Task: structure prediction
Amino acid sequence: QRVPAKQWYQRRVRDEHKATNIGQGFPDFAVPDFLQEEVKRAVAKPSANWYTRAAGHPRLVKALSDEFSPLFGRSIDPMTEVTTAVGAYEAIYAAITAFINPGDEAVVIEPHFDCYAGDMDMCGGKLIRVPLRPTGDGTLAKNWTLDRKEFEEAFNDRTKLLITTTPHNPVGKMFTEEELEFIGGVCAKHNVIIVTDEVYERVVFQGSKHVRIAALPGMWERTITVGSIGKSFSVTGWKVGWAIGPAPLITQLQHVTSCTTFTAPTLLQEASAGAFEREARVKGTPDSYFDWLSGKLEDNCRKLADAFSHIGCVPVWPDGGYFMLVDTAPMGWDFSDENTGRCYDVDCVKWLTREFKLATIPISVFYGDRNRHLAAKYIRVCCAKSDATIEKACQIIRSLKKA
Result:
């Protein structure tokens, strides 16, 4: 039975050790003033406190259509080509549930977010994992790539979905247009639906570019793109997500969500719509939240990378997103005397949490058994943290010693 990494961390980090948390992917800094004002305005509206349209609050799906139509290079119908959900988590669950029946398969690029495996288990499907491997300079996330022959061989007549993430969690890689054209071509050849988790799309570091596979020629018709207010505006507790795609696919997700949660909270959908409308007005100005977020998280990431490099660890510089991998192998730490029988990275993370009150995430939880060895001594850290958290984490990191 699979225990999600989040549950393990809530018990160990928050409840037992009170550790400085640079592991879990949630921002711990204050909600910006404009978002607080949007909530105040929303709660004052009587209709924002009622049930709303099950497939998405009208104001929010209109705002999402306005935002994403130019990014996808097409006019998106807010009523038939957008649906909202209780976070991106539910949107992904709905996509998998809608299209996977017992015995069906989905290809996923590994390492991968843990919920994909759980959702497939509940549907009786089988997850076929194809790993990213560091090639050339493995200290750059962009150099973690697919073996294309291995990727193509993962598909067969039972394959119904490809699940992918860009910017990638946990590697921090942003797939290039050429890579996505190859991936899309394989999916088209096998008539496979693509579920692309793009919740970190607003965090793009300098020199990188976020490419949307659904915007590539011939890909719209087979692609479901998932996004999140929580990651876009640093309010992960709001749990408002969405899926965008062609009506024949989105309709199937709407059937699932209408029978599970029925609707995401009206109040927060209303406030989310206001946030997107505000961002559209200030786009390209110093008031843009999306621009600030990318710059802030890149600065945080640089501070953490410098601290880990200082003690001899090797950071893997990301293209964007919330996370950075760190190779701890050069430290020579040995946990064999603990005799836990667990993966090295799990023992390492527990040791850092217990002895130094520093919470990180073991990478092995993002792998199946077959490929877990590929990143055996890597840990994941989150850059979406407050100045105080980053400063405290860097102090702890710099105090660590080689064996």
The chain has a mean pLDDT of 93. The longest strand covers residues 126-134. The two ends are 35 Å apart (CA to CA).
